[in-house]
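EI: anyone free to look at a 200-residue chain?
SC: sure, send it
EI:
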Amino acid sequence: MGFIEGDRLPQVSRWIFITGSRKNTPESLKIVRQSVANIMKDGGAIVVGAGDGADVAAIKEALIHDPKGDRLKVFLVSDMPSYRASRVNKLSDPNTPVEQITSIYELIETLDRVAQLKDTVQVTKRVPDEGEDPTVKYDTLNVEMVNYVLANPGLEKPITLFFRYGSARGTNAAIESASRQLDGRVFDGLDPKQNPYYPQ
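SC: here you go
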């Protein structure tokens, strides 16, 4: 399912690529959710991946304001059943940190809700061969998410908001991809001086 002309495209003020780290604090997640709330209230739409942590917070908040998911696009690195199964398997992995268990359960619950929405989920077009460096897969994901933002009409130039807590290697890769494609229009969502939707 890809973007084609004539696809369901609601009138929006701006499409925004949201990316964020798995590890967060309650305060940083609160900022994610309130920022997304302000984006939705402003008539904006978001494009996001499906990691636990900041991504889930963004998806859940978007669905509060847009229950049908018309202004939400969730990108996955594989089809929904496969991706969900990988998250379930993660729960039984002895290497999964205890503090991540709750956020994975929350992700699975959110995926089940998103799966019921028409045209909200998009799978990346290219899945790496077995044994290939997984960073290639996620770079492809990031590039395609930004391409979706660029392909959709909006009154304002698209931007990326990142919510990075700690080292966040995956988020850093997403920032790099977005910065290349969006001419540097990439802003720190946790910085009130950079985030135009920062909760006041």
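EI: Residues 1-8 have pLDDT under 50 and may be disordered.
SC: 👍
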